[in-house]
Amino acid sequence: MTDRLRSVLTHLNSIASPRDKLLQKNPDDVVITLAIRTPLCKYKSGALKDTTLDGITFRMLEAVRAKLDLDPAAVDDICLGNVRDGKAAYYCRAAALAAGFPNTVAAHSSSRFCSSGLTATAHIANEVSSGLIDVGIAIGAEMLSEGNDRLDRPFVDEILSNPEAADCMLPMGITSENVAEQFNVSREEQDRYAVESYRRAEAAQRAGWFDDELVPITVKKDGKDITITQDEIRYGTTYEKVAKLKPSFQENGRSTPGNSSQITDGAAAVVLMKRSKALELGQPILAKYVGAAIAGLPPRIMGIGPTLAIPKLLSRYGLDLHKDIDIVEINEAFASMAVYCRDTLKLDWNKMNPRGGAIALGHPFGMTGVRQIVCGLSEARRTKQKVLLTSMCLGTGMGMAGLFVSEQ
Q1: Relative orientation angle of helices 335-344 and 306-317, to the nearest 10 degrees
Q2: Which of 202, 226, 224, 205 has its CA nearest to residue 214?
Q3: Where's the Thiolase C-terminal domain (predicted)?
Q4: pTM exceeds 0.90
Q5: Residues noted as catalytic
Q6: What is the pLDDT of residue 152?
Q7: What is the set of domains in the chain, with CATH numbers?
């Protein structure tokens, strides 16, 4: 490159907008070369009700290996994002070996409540970026049909004596009620939001929009082999039906089974490597991983976390939420927090969860962070849009956000 050309390129870069800079491609970019997920199935009654965490992790990794178009030995590390099971690292390592990855492929787990899948993605991306590994897989999985995730004992007295620390024990439904009461999110607003989530998910499934992100898996249900190919979505949900439901968490509350995230089982995975490595290995580049941000807040109103994490992330890149972001996936843990985040961030609702969210699709805690990436990138392909932002609130009072650029 001549000095003059280098000077011209430097000048052009200096006057490029933040979005233009975001869309630039460099050899050291961390990119996603595969993004897939299992169908989402209802808790205790759905197709995955008899499947365990090690079972779904095995099937997810088996599907990744089958679609990878790459020697499995090229993978250096796998991270499983999971909330409820302290044995997740065991399951990830054993499932990888059983799924056909050689014993040279390392494995571990990550747990940060509802961002565990996004945290796993960030872990693998950071390993790739730092040069610790060349190729990695991030999985998010949760089998809520297996049991309760609440603490099995109270905190010690020294912790309980601090009111804010004690709030970390609050059931998530109570934090939803706190958000609704403190920020005046009405029951009607929540119910109408929920109905739209159901409508979008139903429309997306009928139109086949989920098809390119799903991998069919075969599992046992009630002792028989079944193959699952579609999400278990409730059709025909109306405002009148949702408005009749009783509060779930407190008398005269505003959060109900109809406007809270469905309790659901499932898993999702993404493969990450540097752009230079993807080109060397002949891998398709679906998207660029840009970065992530985490923020803390009072545990009693944990649901508003995205309103802190999103501005924190976008400020790093000089991006404007309204002008520069094309698709926003905010986890619908509860309609109270979804409505609050939408309105506080002044989001265009057409950009937010265009295929519906966790109220309609479900919220397997550890899966959600990866599911949002997989679903958001599929929507970006369909609509030929570029910049995807994902975010979620986290138990004990946190928010996390991730930023991606679709290249398909």
Answers
A1: 40
A2: 205
A3: 285-404
A4: yes
A5: 114, 363, 393
A6: 79
A7: 162-208+290-403 (3.40.47.10)
